Structures are given as structure tokens and as C-alpha cells.
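pinned: reference chain
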Amino acid sequence: MEICPKCGLPMQACVCEQIVKSSQKIQVTTERKKFGKTATIISGFEPGMDIKKIAKALKNELACGGTYKDNAVELQGDHTKKVRAILVKLGFDEEAIS
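pinned: its C-alpha cells
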């Protein structure tokens, strides 16, 4: 049985990621890209979060393309209104999303 080095609980009962999710300040902004395209930037993730998993969940839910880099998720298109509900469903605190 593996033990989490951060919280000392077994890996199946580890709560480290849930604690980190509730203590983050996440910003959702839009940015104009090349050729007038709009991109939604979700930033403010702390190092240690599985940003790849978050980006994949957002892209699947919103049916759009995107990427993750530098502790931020970049989605193609303007999804500022829909992203908040999806992040809350993923376990982030609603008051921490701006």
C-alpha cells in the first residue's frame, strides 16, 4: 500500500488535491490571438495540480480544442460563461473563480 508523502494517508484516501483545489484563486480571461481568433485563458493553478487532466476535462465538456502550458489552460473560443460551472463540477471553489 502506497502512502502519500504530503498528507500521510493511503493514496486511495489522499485529500491533498482537494485541499489545493479549494485554496486557489483562478482567473478566467479572454485573449485575442492571431487572425482575430479568441482564446479563453484559465490561469492561477498552483504547481502540483494535474493541469493535463483539467485541460482534458474542459476540452471534452466544451467540445473545443486547447492546450495547457505554464500552469494555465488555453481553450479555443470564448467560453468564459461556461467554464465556471465546469470548474465547480471538477471540485474547485466557486468563490475562488473570477
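why pinned: The radius of gyration is 15 Å. The longest strand covers residues 27-32.
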